[in-house]
Amino acid sequence: xxxxxxxxxxxxxxxxxxxxxxxxxxxxxxxxxxxxxxxxxxxxxxxxxxxxxxxxxxxxxxxxxxxxxxxxxxxxxxxxxxxxxxxxxxxxxxxxxxxxxxxxxxxxxxxxxxxxxxxxxxxxxxxxxxxxxxxxxxxxxxxxxxxxxxxxxxxxxxxxxxxxxxxxxxxxxxxxxxxxxxxxxxxxxxxxxxxxxxxxxxxxxxxxxxxxxxxxxxxxxxxxxxxxxxxxxxxxxxxxxxxxxxxxxxxxxxxxxxxxxxxxxxxxx
Length: 269
Fold this sequence. Notes:
mainly alpha, two-stranded antiparallel sheet, 2 strands, Cell wall polymerase, membrane
C-alpha cells in the first residue's frame, strides 16, 4: 500500500471510528430507524469521497471552491428554515443539514493553504455564524484559528482568535434552542442508558481528534485547523445545547468532516 492510500485509510478511520460508535449508540438507545439510516448513508458517501477525493490542484480552483463554501454558509439566511429568528440549516428534501458543520471543516482546510488570506476567510465565515446566529460554528472558527495560529504564529490570525471568541459568546447567547434527543446532550442520554456507552463515544471522538491532529495526510496547518474546528464544535456542545459533531445524530458533520478529510493531494505519477 503506497503512502497516499495509507493516508486515505487513516482519514477513513478518523471518520468511521466515531460514527460507528454513534450508530451503535443510536441502536442501543432505541433511536428512530431513520436516524440510523441517515447517518449510515452519510458515512457511506463520506467514505467514498475520502477514497476518491482530491484537493484542487490549482490555486484558482481551490479559491473558487473556498468562495462557494463561504457563500453556502449564508444560504440559510435567504432560504430558511427559521426557528425563533435563527437560520442555520440547509433544507435537502426530508433532511436539514447544519450549514456550519457541512461547510466549515473544508473551509478550515482550504484557509490553511492561504496564509495571506486566512484571517479574512475566517472572518467571512464568522460573519455568517453571527448572523445566523450559530455559536457552534463560531466556536469552531475560534479554535480553528487557535490551531492555525499555533502552527503559523501569524499575529493577524491571533487577532481573529480574540474577535471570534467574543463573537462566539454573543452567537451562543442569541442562538439557543431547545435540545433535540440524540443530537444534543448526547453524553447525558448515553450515560443514562449505560455509562460504558458514554465512555465509548468519548474515547472514539478523542481518538478521532488525535488522529486528525497528528496522522492524516494534510499539511500541519490544515491538520491543526481541522482538529481545532472539531474541538470547537465539541466544546460548545458539551457546555450548551448544540449538536455534537460525529457522535450526535446528524448527516452534516459526517459529510462536512468527510469532505475535508478527502481534500488530499493528488497521487504522484
